[in-house]
Design brief:
- The chain is of the alpha/beta class and 399 residues long.
- Helices cover 35% and strands 23% of the residues.
- The strands form 3 sheets. An 8-stranded parallel sheet has the order 6-7-8-9-10-11-12-13, sandwiched between helices.
- A hairpin with a 2-residue loop joins strand 2 and strand 3.
- Helix 2 packs across helix 3, helix 9 crosses helix 10 and helix 10 runs parallel beside helix 11.
- The relative contact order is 0.15.
- Bound molecules: zinc ion.
- The site of zinc ion has 6 residues, from loops.
- Zinc ion (ZN) binds next to loops.
Length: 399
């Protein structure tokens, strides 16, 4: 065992036991009942609080939030939810917003202070903004690399076929530093499922990266697109590296069809991201998990052109997912917690995640008796540790 540099004492783990946790080189090197390990040079008293792995923010938009900027009132669509119209509203709003770097920093700090230390952010890459947004967010990622790990998805917010030059830009975005290639409603936005997916999976194959596609389409169109994405994932051997964000269509299906498609999604190793959006149907979390699908979550939009909600707190998100899914039992509440922690880590392909020997010492303390209580109470006053070092306390960054 490596010599312990920092000893975290009296930490309550998910099983209710009180433990001391030894950390060295940013990793957990020892876990033992309180009092069993020798004192270390540096000791941090967790004082009986619940200690859980840091949250995984699996879907956010660092470039388009107005959090910390002036309040921008929400403008409804003229005739029901329309992605094209929302994208146009967003372009209008962005023109008068504070500089992107300033807004992204505020949003990042909000997430870290709530206990998210791993994140996947989509960043707009298309004919209108080119690679400019990505360049800004890559700089921010570098600035915060000691505080949070960030994966970036090159996101074609204006479509691929509808926005000339975007196919090449997505490829360049990955060369520049994006970790995954994104997509957007292949059918309803670009009106060409194959044409859209040819580009997305073409870049993924050429560059050896994963895929994370926004899919808002409802009903059988959405379900059909999910099946197409699964087929391409298997064909390219990309199991475990592909995610579908939102997949509203899965919430529209009868239970038998949902189970059949769920089994297909699980077999293809495709993950499903949901934020339990307020006014839409959303994927049946328990049913998909029962079929073996990795369901993860994110705040998605925080005070942006899409909606005014979002507080950067993945524990609150777990509560919302549980609330909308009708989760009441301890087992169900624990499942909601898993969605924002371990399942998120699996979807993002994170190494060394969890409270275990050898894992990275990225954890959060919660004033709760146990995980089910944490999900319903969403306690604040957290302490957040990255690589065994405190990075946030009581809702603010410690730097
Ligand atoms: Zn999104």
């Amino acid at each position: 065992m490596a010599e312990i540099e920092t000893l975290f004492t009296r930490a309550k783990l998910a099983d209710g036991s009180l433990n001391d946790i030894g950390v060295a080189g940013g990793r957990i090197v020892a876990i033992a009942p309180t009092g069993a390990l020798a004192d270390a040079a540096l000791q941090v008293d967790i004082a009986g609080a619940l200690l859980v792995p840091a949250f995984v923010e699996g879907h956010i938009h660092l470039d388009t939030s107005f959090y910390g900027d002036k309040w921008i009132p929400h403008k409804p669509c003229t005739n029901g939810f329309d992605v094209h119209e929302r994208v146009a509203f967003q372009a209008e709003n962005m023109a008068s917003a504070a500089p992107m770097g300033e807004r992204a920093r505020k949003q990042l700090e909000l997430c870290v202070s709530n206990g998210s230390l791993q994140m996947r952010s989509h960043v707009m890459v298309d004919g209108s903004v080119g690679l400019k947004s990505l360049e800004t967010i890559l700089g921010i990622r570098e600035e915060y690399c000691d505080v949070i790990d960030i994966q970036l998805v090159a996101f074609p917010q204006s479509g691929i076929l509808k926005s000339p030059g975007t196919a090449d830009l997505l490829d360049e975005a990955v060369a520049l530093g994006a970790d995954l290639v994104g997509g957007l409603d292949p059918a309803s936005f670009d009106r060409d499922i194959d044409g859209h997916l040819d580009v997305v999976f073409g870049v993924a194959e050429k560059r050896g990266v994963g895929v994370d596609i926004h899919l808002h389409d409802f009903g059988s169109l959405g379900a059909f697109t999910v099946e197409e994405i699964c087929a391409r994932t298997v064909a390219l051997g990309l199991q475990g590296k592909v995610a579908i964000s939102h997949a509203y269509g899965l919430g529209d299906l009868d239970a038998d069809t949902a189970r059949r498609i769920g089994a297909k999604i699980a077999a293809a190793g495709v993950s499903i991201m949901t934020n339990a959006p307020g006014d839409h149907v959303f994927p049946p979390v328990a049913l998909l998990r029962a079929e073996g699908v990795t369901v993860f979550a994110g705040n998605d939009n925080i005070r942006d052109s899409w909606w005014p909600y979002g507080d950067g707190d993945m524990l609150a998100r777990a509560m919302m997912i549980g609330y909308r899914s009708g989760f009441y039992t301890d087992e169900e509440l624990t499942a909601a917690f898993d969605v924002v922690t371990s399942a998120g880590a699996k979807a993002l392909g994170l190494e060394g995640y969890g409270i275990a020997i050898g894992a990275r010492a990225d954890f959060v303390t919660l004033a709760a008796e146990h995980v089910p209580e944490a999900v319903v109470a969403v306690p604040k006053g957290r302490r957040v540790f990255k690589a065994g070092r405190v990075v946030a306390e009581n809702g603010a960054l410690v730097r």
